[in-house]
């Protein structure tokens, strides 16, 4: 009787779950899929790190070489050593206030650990750079994109900062993640800006709304863009704006009008207000950030042209001075080279090879 029952169960099991060979094959397929996903994840992580290494090569070369020269010059850690270290940090575009904090923290660690050899201070420097950035807020570099709503990203920044290319690169990233993206060309005062944005939009596969002939009101362009977004089921709208910082009153009025239109048509919009800053302008970027911060509420920074500067410390200064997270960092000219900011990769890219 037991044999009969087991026979029935064996047949039922095959119907429900397949033969033993099929079950083994399914398990193997699951394992292979899991391994493939893990491999893809690791490869993506490696590619990201490679991008940071390449993009920060100028900053890395300048910073690491300066530190090594300092360590070779001194055979002990004393006040002279710290004074020269302070100069190196300032020359890397780290603000004086932050440099003083870093130096004081380094002095404490050196004393507590009884470190004498200048070449043993590298880990302390890396640790201080990391904790300085991470200390005063949660590090959140992800865009506030939700699947169940129309997501609006407002982008501001002075002309020449890399605003147009940054918008296109963000659009490219979001399209690759399965979003339907519309770009609104809200810089109605520069025909060249609209033309350039259209070229880039076509490159990355994004649709674009342009100003009509003789249309000078950015809010009107935004209004039409919202209508199109709603009618044609886009889930992301990225808005370009004029970069005329020299006339702050007009800029504030324009942005206020755009924000009012957005808020009246889409709940909670804009969900992101990103400021594009050119890393090669150094400390001037901080004053730009303050001015734009007075004109509209900012949620994050896009730091472009990091591959073109040898002063990688500007990332720390911006975060400290205006308490806004760097959400994207420009590491090259390709569309893939606008990377989500990653603190680990940034510190590694800046200090790679310091112990060689």
UniProtKB/TrEMBL annotation:
Pfam families: SRP54, SRP54_N. The keyword Cytoplasm applies. Transmembrane segments: none annotated. Residues 22-49 form a coiled coil. It is a peripheral membrane protein. One of its GO terms (molecular function) is GTPase activity. CDD domains: FtsY. Residues 52-133 form the Signal recognition particle SRP54 helical bundle domain. One of its GO terms (cellular component) is cytoplasm. One of its GO terms (biological process) is SRP-dependent cotranslational protein targeting to membrane. Keywords: Cell cycle, Cell division, Cell membrane, Coiled coil, Cytoplasm, GTP-binding, Hydrolase, Membrane, Nucleotide-binding, Receptor. Involved in targeting and insertion of nascent membrane proteins into the cytoplasmic membrane. Acts as a receptor for the complex formed by the signal recognition particle (SRP) and the ribosome-nascent chain (RNC). This is Signal recognition particle receptor FtsY. The lineage of its organism: Bacteria, Bacillati, Mycoplasmatota, Mycoplasmoidales, Metamycoplasmataceae. The gene is ftsY.
């Amino acid at each position: 009787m037991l044999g009969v029952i087991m026979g029935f169960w064996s047949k039922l099991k095959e119907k429900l779950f397949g033969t033993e060979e099929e079950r083994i094959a399914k398990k193997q397929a699951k394992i292979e899929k899991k391994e493939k996903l893990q491999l893809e994840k690791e490869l993506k992580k490696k590619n990201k790190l490679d991008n940071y290494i390449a993009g920060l090569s100028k900053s890395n070369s300048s910073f690491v070489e300066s530190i090594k020269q300092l360590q070779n010059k001194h055979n002990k850690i004393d006040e002279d050593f710290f004074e020269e270290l302070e100069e190196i940090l300032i020359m890397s575009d780290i603000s004086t206030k932050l440099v003083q904090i870093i130096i004081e923290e380094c002095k404490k660690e050196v004393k507590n650990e009884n470190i004498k050899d200048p070449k043993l201070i590298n880990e302390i420097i890396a640790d201080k750079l990391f904790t300085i950035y991470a200390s005063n807020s949660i590090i959140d570099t992800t865009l506030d994109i939700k699947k169940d709503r129309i997501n609006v990203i407002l982008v501001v920044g002075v002309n020449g900062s890399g605003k147009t290319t940054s918008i296109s690169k963000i659009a490219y990233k979001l399209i690759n993640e399965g979003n339907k993206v519309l770009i609104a060309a809200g810089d109605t005062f520069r025909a060249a800006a609209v033309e350039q944005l259209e070229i880039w939009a076509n490159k990355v596969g994004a649709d674009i709304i342009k100003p009509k002939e003789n249309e000078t009101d950015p809010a009107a362009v935004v209004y039409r863009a919202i209508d199109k977004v709603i009618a044609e089921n886009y889930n992301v709208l990225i808005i370009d704006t004029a970069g005329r910082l020299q006339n702050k009153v007009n800029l504030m009025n324009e942005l206020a009008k755009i924000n009012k239109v957005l808020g009246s048509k889409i709940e909670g919009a804009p969900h992101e207000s990103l400021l594009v800053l050119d890393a090669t302008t150094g400390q001037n970027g901080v004053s730009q950030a303050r001015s734009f911060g007075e004109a509209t509420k900012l949620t994050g920074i896009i730091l472009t042209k990091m591959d073109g500067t040898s002063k990688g410390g500007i990332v720390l200064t911006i975060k400290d001075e205006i308490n806004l997270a760097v959400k994207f960092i420009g590491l090259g000219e390709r569309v893939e080279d606008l990377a989500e900011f990653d603190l680990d990769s940034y510190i590694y890219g800046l200090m790679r090879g310091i112990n060689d």
